[in-house]
Amino acid sequence: MSYSETLEQALIVVRQQAVLMQKCIQQRKLMDALKHASMMLTELRKPDLSPKQYYELYIMVFDSLSLLSSYLTDNHPKIHHLADLYELVQYAGNVVPRLYLMITVGTSYLKCTDSPREEILKDMIEMCRGVQNPMRGLFLRYYLSQRTKQLLPDNAIEFNSNFVINNFIEMNKLWVRLQHQGPLKEREQRTKERKELQILIGSQLVRLSQIVDDNLVIYKDNMLPVILEQVVQCRDVVSQEYLLDVVCQVFPDEFHLSTLDSLLGSTLHMNPDVSINKNVLTLIDRLNGYIDRKEQEQEQDTIQGNSNLFEVFWNYLKTLNEERPDLSLHQFIPLVESIMALSLRWYPDNLSNLNILYGFTAQKCRDYGRAIPQNAEYLFANLLILQNFRHVNRSAALFYNIISQCDAFRELLSLQNMVLQKNIIDTLLDILLSASRENEILFVIDSKASLEKLLSVMEPLIRFRVTSTTRRFSNDALGLSDDLTEDEEGNSSWVLDPSQEKLAQFCHLSLRLLPIECKQYLNVENQVEYLLLLRNWYYRGDKNIKYTYPAIISNFWKLIRKSYLLKTRQKLSRKTENDYSNMIKQLFKYASRCINDLFNVCGSSVIDTVYKLNIQSASLADQLSIGEIAYDFFSQAFTVFEESLSDLKTQFQALVYMIQSLQKTRSLYQENYYDTLIVRCTLHGSRLLRKQDQCRAVYLCSHLWWATEIAVIGEEEGTTADFYREGKRVLECLQRSLRVADSTMDNIQSCQLMVEILNRCLYYFIHGDEHDTHVSVKYINGLIELIKTNLRSLKLEEQIPEQQQSTTRLQDLHIDGQDSTELSSRKKFVMGLDGTYIEIPRTNGSPASISNKLNSMYINEMIYIPLEHFDRTCEYIVNQREIDDRFKVIVV
Amino acid sequence: MLVLALSDAHIPDRAIDLPSKFKKLLGVSNKISQVILLGNCTKSYEFLKFVNEVSSNVVIVRGEYDNGLLPVSKHSRARESIPINTVVRQGAFKIGCCSGYTVVPKNDPLSLLALARQLDVDILLWGGTHNVEAFTLEGKFFVNPGSCTGAFNTDWPFSTEDEDKQDETEGMQNQDEETDQTAEIGQQQEKEEKDQKNMQDQNQDQNQENQTHEKGNDEEINRDQGQNKSEEEGKEPVEDDLELSELDIDGSNTPSFCLLDIQSSTCTLYIYIYIDGEVKVDKVVYQKED
């Protein structure tokens, strides 16, 4: 008998012979049936089949033999005796059909109660040695395994496990041998085929796990040592990786916990090419999954009972490190990572384990000798930010605890390259800052030492300078990253820096996470100490402090207001009250020091900020009725203005802000502070370089002599009697600004300024009687006359003919009928508070175009700025007549 | 047409971030066609990125801590300056924008009115006070969205006791107040039509409210003094254990922002306020006069 040429033919033969066999069974012609079965089985001798093809044949054969098997069992011993048949099939010609028939008959016999089970089983497994071709042998043994599945003797766990182990060992040998068949160049093909067959061998281990059930002793003493011995001895990479993985998967977690030493020990003796970390990872995953399940079942005891789990893995790691110096970082570090995950899962409170691992990895880093290759950087990053830890809640609190308890964390971090360090710290800050979003206190920075540890971890970021080589910022939709050189930076443009921004935010966060004392003064004191610590660390950032110091300063401000409220809203002992007073003074000094540092370190790029920080510190002091300190800060602001603020545009808005702030002060009336400051302010206003700026600054200065109500402190117009008001000076300012307006050469600007002054006059007119404000009807009427005259002259500048010509010409040409209305509707401009020309957009949502300079292209349109502004003002006057009779005497 | 007005974020100098509920609210819809930043909003990369995701049409005016020029962008090397004032057009409205730090006296209604007149606008948006307000004056609509982060404010501080009072009056007067913070932006548009007839009343309400607010303050202060007296008489000196709210220390109102829904000559203003972890929405309608 011989097998078919092709797979197709073979399949046909199997099908035909199966049908014939069935017919014979129906006709109870057993001998003929066996003959057909044998012919069918001959096809399984066919070489050169791929595992998939062979499997296809096998399945067909298996099904047909099942029918035969039932027949055999059903008719024993009435028609035939299976012991006889077992002898009979030994005479089949070829070994493969013979053994299949033998197993079919043997296992049919096993189903009968009168059979000598153990003998048959022993015989069958012994006979299987007859097939040494790997693929055929594997399938034959798989057949044996499938057929005997339900038929192993009861209560014979030892016998059964030996039977299956025996089969497993032989199958593995065949499987390994398959690798070495055929020409060397087909090695990879072989490996691929072997992986397709792996399930056959794996199924034996599944069988074993079913047999052993929960009998740990047998598993530990009889089963696992034999399995591992086979795995180690075969020295085959595919086999070792696969089988160890299956062992980890199919046996219960409790078994692994009791046999960790042998499991891990075996990995030390594996083929060097085996990626041990995969197996250890699987094992740790299992153990972490185990604790999850136990927690769900609320069996806490088991967890506590295994307190040396980390020790086992740690010892293993050390041994591995000594015995396998050849392991690459890519193999080694993930191992450390998974042990870290294990420790965090099993012993979440014991962070000293992590410290040990960080220290160990840092040593590994140093031992590496050279720079860490770029493709391995992420391994260390993963360790530091716990990137892949599914079983661990990567909370802000966890990272706080790690950083404050694991000194080696920082050690390992500092061994990475600069950019990587920065990225890691960025991520850490993101996680820490996420705590602020929850709006509840998730952890407490328990001491200055802990804060110091956090800051020392962040130090590389604090000091990080963007240079051309390290510039790797994301450049996304906004494109907000920079490529500026230092000198450009000085020129009042701001370069956004997401990392420094986080440091500033961290400052706010950390002050919220202090331990709480019962005495508020102690809380304030603690916050001050923390804040000073932050300041000192951030100072190391050199020019970076322009990003972080404003946050420090605003926190000093907050503490100032807090101290003040605590002092004034409680009835305190004199001592505590004094303590608060001193604290407030001290806090102002700290704030002042920060502002000066900012100025000294960052220079011209932050000058406007420094100026305004001084003004706001002054406002704050003023609200606390500390006139002296307020005066000092205002003076400081003036010094900055005089010595360093040179840019025209910056000067104007800076001075306006000074006017606004001074106008709201209340504590400077002592010692002539207020007079000194407002005179100085007005003087600066009148010295501004551009006439229009001068004019605007001076008319705004008029408000410095006209305090208005601040409702939140109980002032009310009409009730409060002691407003600082000096109408004569108000009028002086308005007059002086009018002179400047009049002498402005640009006609449009000059007229516009006058209309603006008119509006100021109306402000005062509404506010008080003429003899208070000195802004009289006569004065206003005179101003209106002057404006009218000037506007008439301005109107003459309009170039009407040309405009009309161009319009008519276009219309004549019939270029576009629809657009002609568009063309005739002129552009419309207004003027901003700072004298900029704002072109009002014509379409919804589009931005206005804003310019500092007059564009003579649109001179006609711009003429309408003061004209229309004046019209609107007159309309306002007319409307006011309805509610205020005094307006009736204003002539428009 | 929805226009979002944000002001005084002061990130990172004084605040970490917007309340996450605000971000959620603004992040989900792409219905907002324009964002107006009214000062002190340009120092945070994350914040600007967020704003750009809300709408790519962003209008910025300069606050006291904004630099004269926009933060530098790699794509447009042209140095764009941040204006003190600007004007945008939406529907039948011209909207003036100003951070308020160049308005003298600060926050003075007459000064703001003069500015609105100078810019020839119907609606004036301003910021810098960290206190959300909306009122009509001389037929013009004045809106201050407050600080979107509730950042620390160096102006004369409000006290929380005043705020409580203010909340009460608001609660009574605005009957169509919506406390459902999940209400999606844009949904409110549907309700707008029914409310239009109430518009005039509401405008008046809003004015009255401002007045009551002021009165409320006075009463509050009087009451305060009363309390102090009784304490002095009766009680032992208290221990140094007073709990202060962040609001008191920040001297700022709670985080808030405004959304203007503009349909031709009607502007429906939604005021979003973040109180005790919830978002409260108030609504005011302003109709342009002919």
UniProtKB/TrEMBL annotation, chain A:
It is found in: Membrane. GO terms for biological process: intracellular protein transport; retrograde transport, endosome to Golgi. InterPro entries: Vps35 (IPR005378), Vps35_C (IPR042491). Keywords: Membrane, Protein transport, Transport. The keyword Membrane applies. It is a peripheral membrane protein. GO terms for cellular component: cytosol; late endosome; retromer, cargo-selective complex. Belongs to the VPS35 family. PANTHER family: VACUOLAR PROTEIN SORTING-ASSOCIATED PROTEIN 35, VACUOLAR SORTING PROTEIN 35. Plays a role in vesicular protein sorting. This is Vacuolar protein sorting-associated protein 35.
Automatic annotation (TrEMBL), chain B:
Belongs to the VPS29 family. It comes from Zygosaccharomyces mellis. It comes from the Eukaryota. Residues 1-153 form the Calcineurin-like phosphoesterase domain. Residues 189-198, 211-223 have a biased composition (Basic and acidic residues). Residues 152-240 are annotated as: Disordered. This is Vacuolar protein sorting-associated protein 29. InterPro entries: Calcineurin-like_PHP_lpxH, Metallo-depent_PP-like, Phosphodiesterase_MJ0936/Vps29. It holds the Pfam family Metallophos_2. Residues 160-181 have a biased composition (Acidic residues). Residues 199-210 have a biased composition (Low complexity).
